[in-house]
Design brief:
single chain, alpha/beta, five-stranded parallel beta sheet, 374 residues, Rossmann fold, 2 domains
Length: 374
């Protein structure tokens, strides 16, 4: 086991074990636990509408969950900033959609998200909490609680709690997909096997990613701003990668859908702007291939404007390296699980940029682990 100068790096390395613990809470071997399925049966409404309320990194995992629940389960999902949802419409406001509400929080004590939960309960919406603290206020007050098993996270920037949230949302989608009859037993078993394989894939790559991101951080530690791009489900990870860089290294960074580059951000692209692109692909998935092709076209456009391209690509890719100046390779995985794999090099990159600047990555200025006051 390598040595760690900071808790953030330690917690990045702890992700495979944290994922195993979290996954094992909700599986019985290679099957979904019946008692969890029974608890979840009381949560969703008949209309199939879900509202996800969260803040910070948890909102990014909510953006990932939105696509999972829509694509795997056929549900209609909206993702709200918890701080906005909790103050919409005043005390007499009634949401005529009457969605089921999912709140996400690492601590379970985030003030904005607790306010969102209180608003959902006021409107008599069914509520579900995903937190890393089973005894937290949020977990206790929601109708259903699905705690993570990430373990205590000491560094302020979320790493292992974030990846465990992604895994939990994938499990939730499997439970909902099975309940709704959206997947047969063979498909469900295949999805479970793919999820169970993830921790070992990550363990095999951590040291290599650590070395690669350290080298790249030396090159880019003086950059003033970064642009992160991702298409489809990868947009959530572009947002998270940018947030990690902002939190840890005090560098301005923004995450955008890749196709939105031409709708404004293109004006920023020149030789001084590093553009980090999520260009992974599940070649067995036609939708993933379409997103990948569109992402390659965006990368070519950035290159034509002399932007400095850094890409995250799937092992075996023969096209991305012809466009990007630097590439991190991640193991092949199904499209809907690739975000769990690709976020880790971005966490490591943020860590190394911050340490090259001499910053305290575990305790970034002006930030706290749990925002408990509005």
């Amino acid at each position: 086991m390598p040595t760690f100068a900071h808790e953030m790096l330690r917690e990045i390395y702890e992700q495979p074990q944290a994922l195993r613990r979290t996954i094992n809470l909700y599986l019985a071997g290679r099957a979904l636990k019946p008692d969890v399925a029974a608890a979840l049966a009381s949560w969703p409404n008949i209309a199939g509408e879900i509202l996800i309320a969260a803040s910070g990194s948890s909102r990014h995992s909510g953006l990932y969950g939105e696509i999972l629940l829509e694509d795997l389960c056929g549900l209609a999902v909206d993702v709200e900033y918890a701080s906005e949802y909790s103050c919409r419409g005043g005390p007499d406001y009634i949401d005529l959609r009457h969605p089921s509400v999912l709140v996400l929080s690492q601590s379970g004590e985030t003030s904005d998200t607790l306010a969102a939960l209180a608003e959902a309960r006021r409107q008599d919406h069914k509520t579900l909490a995903i937190t890393n603290a089973a005894a937290s206020t949020m977990a206790t007050e929601a109708d259903v609680s699905m705690p993570l098993a990430a373990g205590v996270e000491k560094a302020i920037p979320a790493t292992k709690s974030f990846s465990c949230q992604l895994a939990m949302l994938y499990l939730l989608a499997l439970y909902e997909g099975a309940r709704l009859g959206r997947m047969d037993s063979a498909t469900l078993a295949a999805h479970i096997d793919e999820l169970l394989a993830l921790p070992a894939l990550l363990e095999a790559q951590l040291d290599s990613w650590r070395d690669q991101t350290a080298a790249l951080a030396r090159k880019y530690s003086s950059a003033a701003t970064f642009l992160y791009l991702g298409c489809g489900i990868h947009y959530a990870i572009a947002r998270e990668g940018a947030l990690k860089l902002k939190e840890a290294s005090y560098v301005h960074a923004e995450g955008y859908p890749a196709g939105e580059l031409k709708h404004g951000p293109n004006a920023l692209v020149d030789e001084t702007l590093p553009v980090v692109v999520l260009a992974t692909c599940d070649h067995s998935d036609p939708d993933s291939l379409l997103r990948y092709r569109r992402t390659l076209e965006v990368m070519k456009e950035v290159k034509s404007r002399r932007g400095s391209l850094v890409a995250v690509a799937t092992e075996g890719d023969t096209e991305v390296a012809n466009i990007a100046a630097h590439v991190f390779y991640v193991p092949a995985a199904p499209e809907l699980l690739l975000p769990v794999v690709e976020v880790i090099p971005l966490q490591l990159f943020a860590y190394h940029v911050a340490t090259k600047k001499g910053y305290d990555v575990d305790h970034p200025r002006n930030l706290v682990k749990s925002v408990v006051t509005e």
